[in-house]
From TrEMBL:
Gene3D superfamilies: 3.30.70.270, EAL domain
All residue ranges annotated as the GGDEF domain in the record: 253-383
Organism this protein belongs to: Novosphingobium capsulatum
Transmembrane segments: 32-49, 55-75, 96-118, 130-163, 170-191
Pfam families found in the cross-reference section: EAL, GGDEF
UniProt-listed PROSITE patterns: EAL, GGDEF
Ranges of residues in domain EAL: 388-641
Keywords: Membrane, Transmembrane, Transmembrane helix
Protein name: Diguanylate cyclase (GGDEF)-like protein
Length: 656
């Protein structure tokens, strides 16, 4: 078994791919030097023996050996120019040089021994020096291939020792023993060096493997960082990166950008819980991925919002229809069958813009238009929307550069007690006259302000002016302020309202804060906490525009509310056939859960009468008064007190 180990050592040459390549690369630099050493040293010996030895030994034999050596040197120089060999090529090269090392060494040592008897002591010493130095040089050149170096040593050393002993002179015997010891030490150093070389290669291979594994892990982490964990879709970060890439690396190429938002998702999430909402989103994500087709990339941007990028502009309309159809299809989660819809805003490059930010903003604006103006479906950004965007941006710029405290004014919409016709409260409404834009509709600038920090400044200005005006109103008249979704959860706004109430000395019970149903139901749990925080400072809370959103009646019951304002759309329906059915149902529901009602948009005496018969206590609308300045309101209050039977006359006029 032990005897087979040396043979196995030779048989394993080149079996380790990484080691073989490293050996071959080193030998490509060193083997040409080895052959060059042979040529130079051998030529020197042939020259010194040209007059002492036969021509066959100084010319013929060296010519053959030198030709073979020269061609081998040229071969290895060509191999070096080819660069790093493959593992299989390296294996063949190592085995080839090992195979020829013994015969080449034997040929040269045989030739040198044939020359040894000729000449005097200097020529004979030259032969000994030639053999010893040449074999040492060859071993050094083969240091990365110990099998070949060992073959050279085992071929040359015995012949050299025999030559020295045959001279039967002490000096030659001593030289032979000395060279043998030097070669033994040299071989030991060679094996130690090769072991170090082999260890470095294996360590390098390990580091390479570790580096490859690290690269794989980094790539996996990058993939996870760009993937939404819930739906498996690419996430918002990937969406913006891809959008940026499309606008830069594919500049000039048309493509479509879509931003999709689910309808009625919040009530489902709030009613059935986040686990049902998550399963709904996962299923919607799968449907979108399946329906998008081969060209469109689908992303989850966050919450119930998704993004789309599609280079197939001509077919994107059909893709949108397919996506909305898939979303509208009933979806079953356990025992629950869910129905949702979607709104989709689309921007085309280059019609809507060529920059990533511009395209996303325009798609998002088209989504807003689809959701809040068109009531759902698909909206493609157009020239008309571009005009609206520019108008909004003009408003935004004007808001940023305005002194709101000076430019904002307030008016008051009276809220009447239906039974007596008495003024019970006023709703504070804001008006803005910009020195740049002139008079701007509240519906326009409030919507823009809510998308920036300007809404907080507007709210503070309106609260400050409204509380100051309340000091001039009768103590039994409440003052109602509209609070945006941004201010609803703002601790700064809450603290400001508390300070202003304390500063003006107004009874907090006279203050009403109105929040829209849409703002509250966007996140019912957070809204409930915010509403309770306002009630804790003594103010009352009213739910505005009730019936226009998608709120769960159960959640309305659990919200900390004091009053509900019935939307004007229900009041307008009172004049139709059986038009009071919905209004009566809303009023009855409010009374059942202990909330008072205010009807908005009352314009006819018949609406007044029907609301009162249905049990509604308060109302506001143009039948009673348009929004008034403080002076006009105070004058109207005086007139109403003087004509208190006015309410009875109005009811009689309505009955006629």
């Amino acid at each position: 078994m032990r005897a087979s180990r040396p043979f196995r050592w030779f048989a394993e040459i080149g079996d380790d791919p990484a080691l073989a390549v490293s050996q071959a690369v080193n030998l490509q630099r060193q083997v040409p030097l080895l052959y060059g050493l042979l040529l130079i040293n051998s030529l020197a010996v042939a020259i010194t023996h040209r007059h002492q030895a036969p021509a066959v030994l100084t010319i013929s034999v060296p010519a053959v050996l030198f030709a073979i050596t020269f061609f081998r040197m040229i071969h290895w120089l060509r191999q070096a120019r080819k660069g790093v060999p493959t593992a299989e090529q390296a294996r063949r090269q190592l085995r080839a040089i090992t195979a020829v090392s013994g015969p080449v060494a034997l040929a040269y040592v045989g030739w040198s021994l044939a020359l040894a008897p000729y000449g005097g002591p200097f020529e004979q010493a030259h032969v000994g020096l030639y053999i010893s130095t040449t074999v040492i040089g060859c071993i050094f050149c083969l240091i990365v291939l110990p099998q070949a170096a060992l073959l050279v040593a085992l071929t040359v050393l015995p012949a050299f020792i025999i030559m020295c002993l045959a001279r039967q002179q002490l000096i030659f015997v001593t030289i032979g023993i000395n060279v043998a010891l030097v070669l033994a030490v040299l071989l030991r150093v060679l094996f130690n060096s090769f072991a170090h070389f082999e260890g470095q290669v294996r360590a390098g291979t390990l580091l390479t493997a570790q580096h490859a594994e690290l690269q794989r892990l980094n790539e996996e982490n990058r993939r996870l960082a760009l993937t939404d964990a819930l739906t498996g879709l690419a996430n918002r970060r990937r969406f913006h990166a891809d959008l940026e890439a499309w606008t830069t690396t594919h500049a000039g190429m048309p493509f479509a950008v879509g931003v999709l938002d689910l309808d009625r998702f919040k009530p489902i999430n709030d009613t059935y819980g986040h686990h049902v909402g998550d399963r709904l989103l996962a299923e919607i994500g799968a449907r979108l991925r399946h329906a998008a087709g081969p060209s469109a990339q689908v992303y989850r941007l966050g919450g119930d919002e998704f993004g789309l990028i599609d280079p197939d502009v001509s077919g994107f309309t059909r893709t949108c229809e397919r996506l909305l159809q898939q979303i509208r299809a009933p979806l079953q989660v356990g025992e629950i069958v869910l129905h949702v819809g979607a709104s989709l805003g689309v921007a085309h490059c280059p019609q809507a813009g060529t920059g990533a930010d511009d395209l996303f903003d325009r798609a998002d604006y088209a989504l807003y238009h689809a959701k809040h103006v068109e009531g759902g479906g698909v909206c493609v950004f157009s020239a008309a929307l571009e005009t609206a965007v520019r108008a909004d941006r003009a408003i935004e710029v004007a808001l940023q550069g305005s002194t709101l405290e000076d430019e904002l004014t307030i008016v008051f919409q009276p809220i009447i007690e239906l039974a007596s016709g008495r003024l019970s409260a006023v709703e504070v409404l804001v008006r803005w006259t910009s020195p740049v834009l002139g008079e701007v509709s509240a519906a326009d600038f409030i919507a823009v302000a809510e998308r920036s920090t300007a809404i907080h400044s507007i709210t503070r200005a309106v609260i400050r002016k409204g509380l100051k005006a309340a000091q001039h109103l009768p103590d039994d008249v409440a003052v109602s302020f509209n609070i945006s979704a941004c201010d609803l959860t703002s601790a700064t706004t809450l603290a400001f309202i508390r300070r202003e109430i304390e500063r003006t000395g107004i009874d907090p019970g006279r203050i009403w804060l109105e929040v829209t149903e849409t703002a509250v139901m966007a996140n019912a749990e957070t809204a409930a906490q915010a509403l309770q925080a306002f009630r804790d400072i003594g103010v009352h809370v009213a739910l505005d525009d009730f019936g226009t959103g998608y709120s769960s009646l159960g959640y309305v019951q659990r919200l900390p509310l004091d009053k509900v304002k019935i939307d004007r759309s229900f009041v307008a329906g009172l004049d139709g056939t059986d038009g009071d059915t919905i209004a009566r149902a809303v009023i009855t529901f409010c009374h059942t859960i202990g909330l008072s009602c205010v009807a908005e948009g009352v314009e006819t005496p018949s609406q007044w009468r029907m609301l009162q018969e249905a049990g509604c206590k308060h109302a506001q609308g143009y039948l009673f008064s348009k929004p008034l300045t403080l002076d006009a309101l105070l004058a109207l209050c005086t007139e109403w007190e003087r004509q208190r039977p006015w309410g009875a006359r109005q009811r009689q006029r309505g009955a006629a």
